[in-house]
Amino acid sequence: MDSIVQQYIPMADVIAKTFGSDVEVVIHDLTIPQNSVVYTVNNHVTGRQVGQSFNHLITDVLLSQNFTNDYSANYYFHTDDGRLIKSSTVLIRDHDKKVKGALCINVDTTKITQSINYLTSLLPQVPNNGPDPTPQFEDTSKMDHINEIANDLIDKTIGNKSVDSLRREEKIEMIRFMEQKGIFLIRGTIERVAEKLKISKVTVYSYIDEIKEKYNKG
């Protein structure tokens, strides 16, 4: 585990002990993207295990409109058994401002939702007279920052391997991991991977198509 990331273990413990068993805290070491989960508390909430990889870092954190000052707060996802999880993630940086990891807080909303539903059932129903507009905006000023993180994840995923000696299957597996984690949703990452693996952009796209066809069958 990276020494900077390791310093956040007491914080994870105190958050979990303060807010109880429905609050899970997960620490990621992003210097090892494929096995980024290095510490968990109350992992019965989502079932996260040490040695697993990140799931929501790209789509719900880096690409979120709410991502600012190195954190994204209060996004939601469902567990495999249908429970709604409220989540927040903050990046961990070293003294040189390099991203080293992330700390995630996952709250099982089941008990809260049940209580709210019960209390709501006791109140008179108020009609909804109009749509609830959601403002849409795009903050392009942070894209350089996001690209820096994505490029670092790419570099860590490929590692220091001699790409000239990599078999085609090994390159496809790396691309499959990055595609699964949403890295290719970020502008410029296809070009970065092509450059790192010493293949063309067309080849990267063909590998992605091959991966989608293989894993979407059935």
Automatic annotation (TrEMBL):
Give the source lineage, highest ranks first: Bacteria, Bacillati, Bacillota, Bacilli, Bacillales
- Domain (Transcriptional regulator DauR-like HTH): residue spans on this chain: 151-209
Q: Which residues form the YheO-like domain?
A: 6-115
Q: Which organism is it from?
A: Ureibacillus acetophenoni
Highest taxon listed in the record's lineage: Bacteria
What is this protein's record name? Predicted transcriptional regulator YheO
| PANTHER family documented for this protein | TRANSCRIPTIONAL REGULATOR DAUR (PTHR35568)
